[in-house]
Design a protein that fits this description.
Shape: globular
Number of helices: 5
Strand content: under 5%
Order of helices and strands: HHHHH
CATH superfamily: Cytochrome c-like domain
Distance between the termini: 57 Å
CATH class: Mainly Alpha
Radius of gyration: 18 Å
Structural class: mainly alpha
């Protein structure tokens, strides 16, 4: 195999691997159980499909104030989400579903 073909093949494999690792699965782009589609798209990849924790901490058992503060202000390594991104209605619905 020529060096250029080997390089192109390696580059293609790397690109596919990187894209598949970064992109959420289609299951995470739709509502998960009683949780909102916003939770599925923005939270589930780190906190688990049901908030059970994964690479991010579990979200079950938090007070509404603690959950809201984490969402709106962010935490170590976690981005903050404005109401334009994660509506107050979805935030409250998801908190109720998690507890």
């Amino acid at each position: 195999m020529k060096i250029s073909n080997l390089f192109a093949t390696t580059l293609s494999i790397a690109a596919v691997t990187a894209c598949s690792a970064a992109a959420p699965t289609s299951a995470k782009l739709t509502a998960v159980g009683p949780l909102s589609a916003t939770f599925a798209a923005k939270c589930a990849s780190c906190h688990g499909d049901q908030g059970e924790g994964d690479i991010g901490p579990k979200l079950t058992g938090l007070s509404l104030d603690a959950y809201s503060a984490a969402v709106r202000e962010g935490r170590a390594g976690m981005p903050s989400f404005t109401e334009a991104v994660y509506s107050e209605a979805d935030l409250k619905k998801d908190h109720a579903s998690l507890n």
